[in-house]
UniProtKB/TrEMBL annotation, chain A:
Keyword field: Membrane, Sulfate transport, Transmembrane, Transmembrane helix, Transport
Species this chain originates from: Loigolactobacillus binensis
Lineage, highest ranks first: Bacteria, Bacillati, Bacillota, Bacilli, Lactobacillales
Description of how the protein assembles with itself and partners: The complex is composed of two ATP-binding proteins (CysA), two transmembrane proteins (CysT and CysW) and a solute-binding protein (CysP).
Protein name (database record): Sulfate ABC transporter permease
PROSITE patterns the UniProt entry points to: ABC_TM1 (PS50928)
Domain ABC transmembrane type-1 span(s) in chain numbering: 57-260
Automatic annotation (TrEMBL), chain B:
Gene label: cysT
Location within or outside the cell: Membrane
Source organism of the structure: Loigolactobacillus binensis
Keyword Transport annotated: yes
The protein's name: Sulfate transport system permease protein CysT
Highest rank taxon of the organism: Bacteria
TrEMBL record, chain C:
Protein name stated in the entry: Sulfate ABC transporter substrate-binding protein
Primary site of residence: periplasm
Family of this protein: Belongs to the prokaryotic sulfate-binding protein family.
PANTHER family: SULFATE-BINDING PROTEIN
Lineage: Bacteria, Bacillati, Bacillota, Bacilli, Lactobacillales
Length: 266, 274, 349
């Protein structure tokens, strides 16, 4: 092992690592910023504060908030269920929660079109009650929920499992209600993983592209998320503007990563 | 017998209902729709759609790209994990934090950035063009995009294992006269192999399904740079829901089988390790 | 403890200030766009294809003014741009478009076949319901290094063509048909025409999925040395990159007719029939025709055609109804259907 601890080898490996990261990670990110500012600050500011961009921000934030709320409720309930009780089919349930991770975004879009689209099998229902799902915000919310589905539950389950159920059982035997147990015993232990899970889900929700692209219809001001706006601009010769909008997403990504670091340290 | 399912803690039915409802509405219902429409296609038509030349070409491109990207990321992931756990150096936290970025970065942003970077006018594209390498709008572009989006996977799998590696074992082996490579092969590798396999599997599956970053850089030419998810997108755009459904099912089944193999392999390795 | 409390209030305040600043900015932009003013506001959704983005941005402003003047009502138009065929399919799948303005008639016909608009839509408005037209030209890099002047030059061994695939892009069918029209006019034999088109597509180095993707490949990524595309697309590139490209107009090409229609059932359901019809009809007005010409589409109004004659070189234009094609239905089947001529000449890659 002396060889790998040798100064020369260490620096060689370090150099390779940094070079790799520089080429494939730092350069592209630097490029986004450079391209966004290539037309000057004025263009940058007008593009970033244009109505289309703001409407895309609104929709993206709405989709993110909705999927986070869903994740919060579902994540806690799934973690609670899977760690505190034994029941038949538990393994299946566990596997199902992970399922959305291994489904390609395009397929996610497809399955929602097959379910809610005009030719989909729930179409008659939604036509009668006159609710538009596909090519409207609801579909964007649904797909965002799908792709962020496992994040919170995945963070919570191992932490709860490691904690064990003794405390909760004692509390239950002493007559505490489920709500009391959740609030006073379980939740405090879940704070950190919950925050991490929500942060990860935020990252995914903000940037989801493939699934949303299938169900959105890309109507400006109505169903255009930030990622889709980047694509639309890019496809319309507005390269620099596409990079401008990309900086919003890049900024939120950086915020998410920093937040995650801080949470992990705490 | 009545003690088989312990449910001392209240809230079982409530959390069960909530979980099943969420899972049912968001995951199971749409996936069932996929299964049903796949079933409705019928076997002969299914086979026909799944084995068209253009479709076969796209499987090959997807699998080849994913395999290359997964290999590259396994090697570099191991290197990065090694560097991050075994050495101290200035800027270590930065390197570690940077690795989180590809995971969190929206794929569309990654796509346009990489496409531009490696195009003939981009910084790296200009650099490699004299070597006769073309990245953007070729198969290479697909691999680069795949490498980018799955960069952290192997590192994050291997990192904790390497961090826990007991240096005294290596030292003991060294004093017993083992060469560096023998020690690496016989002591270190078995420890990290399960994590490497898991990481490889994660990267491979994600690469197969990746769409957002690749469409911008791939050129999307049938038979040459058309990945399966993109072909599904085309089928959707051509209004061929049957075709899209068939491809989606083939992809899902393939990735399940692959995951199953990886999972079992990893379990086997872990068991052997003890 | 005290400090922490203070910190939290401070953070909350900051968030609130930022949020309200964002709200003010948003409301201001909305007011600027005129969408937030009082009075009844109708929204009209126009599902269009890629290259009309600039035109409809300009047209929507003009139409909004016109409609307010005429009916006293506010209208806001939301536009969606994308590949023509894909856009048509989203409408069939329930994308609530009041009007569609697509690249070619069959895309609208497929919406009609889905029962969303009435038969005979193409006869409802003048000029085959194509208020503006275009044609297929060549875009080359400055100085025309390959010395391309017409279709025949595309067969030179050194020429690398970038274009979109007629299989995936509706707009690109016009490109293919333009080549076919030239070959028929030149050789007077379908067999020779097939050979010509085959040889031409063998020179295609990048066959992109969409017209816009092909442009990106040629312009931004510097692939190939000639882009076969629509005239308006080529002109748009020249406008975006002045002095870097030039347009070569061949002697014979096709008259590309992007069609427009009101999606009757959606408009009826949303109660927008009147404004949707006005939206399409006004495309034929002098003002709109001028806008089309300024956005590089060939106008159909003769007086506007005359006024802009310098911008659009004269050439022999073959239409889809020419006996060599015999209309879209026949052409689709013969050339683009699975196993059709295009598949035969371009086959397995």
């Amino acid at each position: 092992m002396q060889l790998l601890q040798a100064k020369k080898v260490k620096w060689l490996l370090l150099a390779i690592a940094w070079l790799f990261i520089f080429g494939i990670l730092i350069l592209p990110l630097a490029l986004v910023v450079m391209q966004a500012l290539a037309l000057g600050w004025r263009t940058y500011l007008t593009t970033i504060s244009s109505l289309v961009t703001l409407q895309a921000v609104n929709l993206t934030v709405a989709a993110t908030v909705i999927s986070l709320l869903f994740n919060l409720v579902f994540g806690i309930s799934a973690a609670w269920l899977l760690t505190f009780y034994d029941f038949p089919g538990k393994h299946l349930l566990n596997a199902l929660i992970d399922l959305p991770f291994s489904v390609s975004p395009v397929i996610v879009g497809l399955i929602f079109v097959l379910t809610f689209g005009q030719t989909g099998w729930l179409a008659p229902l939604f036509t009668t009650i006159k609710v538009q799902i596909i090519f409207a915000p609801p579909a964007i919310f649904l797909t965002t929920i799908f792709v962020t589905f496992p994040f919170v539950a995945r963070e919570l389950i191992p932490v709860l499992a490691a904690k064990g159920r003794e405390e909760e059982q004692t509390a239950a035997l002493l007559g505490a209600s489920a709500w009391q147990i959740l609030r006073q015993i379980t939740f405090p232990a879940l704070k950190a993983p919950l925050a991490t899970g929500l942060v990860l889900a935020t990252a995914r929700a903000l940037g989801e592209f493939g699934a949303v692209a299938v169900v959105s219809g890309s109507i400006r001001g109505k169903t255009l998320t930030l990622s889709l706006l980047v694509q639309t601009l890019y496809n319309n010769f507005k390269f620099k503007q596409a990079f401008v909008v990309a900086t919003i997403l890049l900024g939120s990504t950086l915020a998410v990563v920093i937040l995650k670091r801080r949470l992990l340290r705490e | 017998m009545q003690q088989k399912w312990q449910r001392v803690i209240p809230g079982y039915y409530f959390s069960l209902t909530l979980t099943l409802l969420g899972l049912g509405l968001i995951v199971v219902l749409p996936l069932t729709a996929l299964l049903i429409s796949g079933w409705q296609v019928g076997a002969p038509r299914f086979w026909h759609e799944a084995t068209q030349q253009r479709v076969l070409a796209s499987y090959l491109i997807s699998i080849k790209g994913a395999a290359i990207a997964a290999s590259v990321n396994t090697i570099f992931g191991l290197l990065l994990a090694w560097v991050l756990t075994q050495y101290t150096f200035p800027g270590k936290w930065l390197l570690d934090s940077l690795l989180d970025l590809p995971f969190a970065l929206p794929t569309a942003v990654a796509g346009i950035a990489l496409a531009y970077l490696f195009s003939d006018r981009g910084w790296l594209g200009r650099l490699v063009a004299p070597l006769g390498w073309q990245v953007s709008y070729t198969f290479n572009g697909i691999v680069v995009a795949m490498i980018f989006v799955t960069l952290p996977f192997v590192v994050r799998e291997v990192q904790p294992v390497l961090a826990k590696l007991d240096p005294s074992v290596q030292e003991a082996a060294h004093t017993l006269g083992g060469s560096t490579f023998t020690i690496l092969r016989l002591v270190v590798l078995p420890e990290i192999l399960p994590a490497l396999v898991a990481g490889f599997g994660l990267v491979f599956t994600r690469c197969l399904g990746e769409y957002g970053s690749i469409v911008f850089i791939a050129g999307n030419q049938p038979y040459r740079t058309e990945i399966t998810p993109l072909l599904i997108m085309f089928k959707l755009e051509e209004h061929s829901y049957q075709g899209a459904t068939v491809l989606a099912l083939v992809m899902l089944v393939f990735s399940f089988i692959f995951n199953f193999i990886i999972h079992n392999w990893q379990r086997h390795l872990l068991r052997r390790k003890g | 403890m005290h400090w922490q409390k203070y910190n939290w209030w401070w953070r909350l305040g900051l968030v609130l200030v930022l949020l309200s600043a964002y709200g003010v900015l948003y409301q201001w932009r909305l007011a600027q766009a005129g969408a937030n003013s009082t009075g009844a506001t109708v929204t009209l959704t126009n599902v269009s294809y890629d290259s009309t983005r600039e035109f409809y941005q300009a047209y929507d402003r003009v139409f909004t003014k016109y409609w307010q003047h005429k009916s006293g009502k506010k209208v806001t138009v939301a536009v969606s741009n994308g590949g023509s065929g894909k856009q048509a399919n989203t409408v069939i799948d329930g994308n609530q478009a009041d009007v569609v303005t697509l690249a070619l008639a069959p895309d609208i016909t497929s919406i009609q076949k889905a029962g969303l608009l009435n038969k005979g839509w193409q006869q409802r408005y003048p000029a085959n319901s194509a208020p503006y037209t275009s044609t297929v030209v060549f875009l080359v890099r400055k100085g025309n290094p390959q010395q391309i002047s017409g279709w025949a030059d595309l067969l030179k061994a050194t020429v690398k063509i970038v274009t979109a695939s007629p299989k995936t892009s509706g707009g690109a069918r016009w490109n293919y048909l333009a080549a076919w029209a030239y070959a028929i006019k030149r050789y007077h034999s379908p067999k020779k025409a097939r050979q010509f088109v085959k040889a031409m597509y063998q020179n295609v180095t990048v066959l992109d999925s969409g017209a816009r993707d092909a442009t990106t490949t040629f312009v931004e990524n510097g692939q190939g040395n000639v882009l076969v595309t629509w005239e308006n697309e080529a002109k748009l590139v020249c406008q975006q990159h002045p002095g870097k490209y030039q347009i070569i107009t061949p002697s014979i090409s096709i008259k590309a007719e992007p069609s427009v229609a009101v999606v009757d059932s959606v408009a009826a359901q949303r109660g927008t029939t009147k404004v949707a019809r006005a939206y399409i009809k006004y495309l034929y007005s002098l003002k709109a025709q001028r806008l089309a010409a300024q956005n590089f589409y060939r106008p159909t109004d003769q007086s506007v055609v005359h006024a802009y004659r310098k911008d659009f070189p004269k050439l022999q234009l073959v239409t889809i109804d020419d006996p060599m094609f015999g209309g879209w239905a026949k052409t689709e089947k013969k050339h683009f259907a699975t196993g059709g001529i295009f598949d035969q000449i371009y086959g397995g890659g």
